[in-house]
Amino acid sequence: MDIQDIKNRFGIIGNSPLLNRAIDVAWQVAPTDISVLIQGESGSGKEVFSHIIHQLSARKHGPFIAVNCGAIPEGTIDSELFGHEKGSFTGAHEARKGYFEVVDSGTIFLDEVGELPLGTQARLLRVLETGEYIRVGSSKVQKTNVRVVAATNVDVYEAVKKGRFREDLYYRLNTVPLRIPSLRERKEDINLLFRKFIVDFSDKYRSPGVQLTPDAQETLMKYSWPGNVRQLKNIAEQIAVLEKERVVDSPILSKYLPIEQPVSSLPVFVKDAGKEDFSERDLLYKVLFDMKKDMVDLKKLVVELIKEGVSPGTYEQNSPYINQLYKEVKPSAGYLGEESTHPTLTIHNPNQGSKGNDYMSYDDQEAEEIEESLSLVEKESDLIKKALKKHKGKRKAAARELGISERTLYRKIKDLNLD
Ligand SMILES: Nc1ncnc2c1ncn2[C@@H]1O[C@H](COP(=O)(O)OP(=O)(O)O)[C@@H](O)[C@H]1O
Ligand SMILES: [Mg+2]
């Protein structure tokens, strides 16, 4: 067996030195029982490598389970991994085996291992060092023989420095580090991969296939591929299905590539000794939080204005800001202060005995739209529903689209009763 055999067997495309090096490491470490920590960006092939390690090991006839640690709610993760006894918590009507019990004599792939809560990390360290674990709600120590392959797309050592990941566990998992290169680091493989995917998908969808012009190939190479091979595969699939032209040049190709986010357009927090630096998720929360605060302020403002019984004309003269806001909320309709070629926004003063509590009416339907656009919760659940629908209920994909972690999505689905 040589490296090409491995590539053929596991469908790995590419010849770049970094990729070959990764395959070499996986191949060498596979037959040992050593824990491996696979590091690489999302979509770079970490899961593929976990299969290589299992299949080329003596455990290949044993079970293999891939667990996405980021997708399991904190409250149930111990029970998922280590099992629980009947009645150990509300809803535990039956005893249940955990993955470490089920996978005895096999391999467990712990994806997004950096997301594990600290308590679970302690249990994991124990099972790694002694093979011992305890079901939730039990006191009986059980034994298992499981090989752990873990993966992360973030720098876990950063989490160690911040106290969010146990240092001892980090070293235990990282006995052999395996780094999967991003697509940017192996540009020479991009065209090869694209051609292979186009052939596969044209076959699958019985479409005639496409050819890239040299400038399109260059565009492909220059693109940053934040989603790595997964993204490239995805775009090849779209082109195979949708593209009418048989020869694809750079402008055509560019239509399929999401616009690259220049780094400078993202909010930047200057790292400062002693100050917390924000993860992407923290940032997202902060943005949402600020938005919510703005919304609350706005509502207050509107209520106050209503209380004061100011007529719309007053806004027109005094507050271009309000006009602007209204324009933003409802860009397709006219806004306060515009000539009466459209229904006028009227603000009823409840103190002056206007109908019901219908404070704002544009006409009934419009009023509803205004109401809706002010509800962050509704917008949120709406977006989540849309994302889930778009991805046919696949939470992983939906979460990625929404830019939140699977765990956050899971929680929101529960909180918002979207099940
Ligand atoms: N070198 C490669 N050659 C061909 N396909 C690959 C390669 N690396 C990854 N893939 C494919 O890309 C997709 C993402 O890989 P995956 O292992 O799930 O990434 P990760 O776990 O790092 O997010 C999968 O469909 C996988 O088959
Ligand atoms: Mg993955």
From TrEMBL:
Q: For the Sigma-54 factor interaction domain, which residue ranges apply?
A: 12-241
Q: Which SUPFAM superfamilies match?
A: Homeodomain-like, P-loop containing nucleoside triphosphate hydrolases
Q: Output this protein's name.
A: Sigma-54-dependent Fis family transcriptional regulator
Q: Name one GO molecular function term.
A: ATP binding
Please, which domain of life does this record's source organism belong to? Answer: Bacteria
Q: Does the keyword Metal-binding apply?
A: no
Which PROSITE patterns does the record match to this protein? SIGMA54_INTERACT_1, SIGMA54_INTERACT_3, SIGMA54_INTERACT_4
Q: Record's CDD domains?
A: AAA
